[in-house]
Amino acid sequence: MQSYDNTSANGQAVHYLPVHVPQPEKTARFAKARAAVRDWWNRAWDVDGVLHHLWDDVLSAPEDGLRYMAPWIRAVLVVAGVSFVVLMAKAAGEVVLQALHQLLTAVPKVQVGVDTSNGVFAVVDQPVRTYIAQHSAGLPVAASTVYTLWLLTGIVGLVLGFLSKNNGVRAMWAGHGAVTVWMVWTATPTTSRPVAAGLAVLAWTFLSAFAMRGLTLRRRVRAGRPAKVTVRPEIYVPVQPPAPAAEQHPHNGCPFRD
Fold first, then answer.
1. pLDDT tens profile 71-82
2. Residue 31 to residues 45, 182, 258, Cα–Cα distance (Å)
3. Lower CB count within 10 Å: N or C terminus of the chain?
4. DSSP string, 209-222
């Protein structure tokens, strides 16, 4: 007679793995969810479905053009374009800043604060070098870099002010001149301070004739430009009061009856 115990023929115990029996409720729930997703997908791709309309907008976008395409496609294109421009500007900014840093650090170490120039230019240049050497000790950049930036600011303000006639560039040029005169006044010895500051003002005034070319305080009026006149063809008709009713004779208007 066959034995149904869990021992093998040689007397060793046999362990059986548990068999997983799926629960009917969970299986029915998953089947219902899959059916709902399938139904939504089929309805979305119908003629009046959401995905069908979106795909139709994508297909008709090349023919409609940027002006008449679907608003959501135009919004996606604008966001993508702005993101691309921001990324390119960031990359270009990093390259420009790195190149500017290499340019400034490659400037020869000029001896700021000593006699490195001669002539009339030295009246302005040497006090500026001395002032920068005295007040740039705690800065993270070298004094020669600050001096190079001062020169570049003046050259850019002079050239762009002459070419572009931009008020912002002219304001930069005016600030550069005021700071230069202040540095000359501060770093020049007391005995020759007025003369040095006066020469700095004269030099800045002479160069301002080029940097501020065409600047005027008067309002520009272009000759030959017709004045803007708005003509509104309207006819105003006053309302006439109603005419009084004609008085009638008691005999119906007949003059021969009493």
1. 888 888 888 888
2. 21, 84, 111
3. N
4. HHHTTT--SSPP--
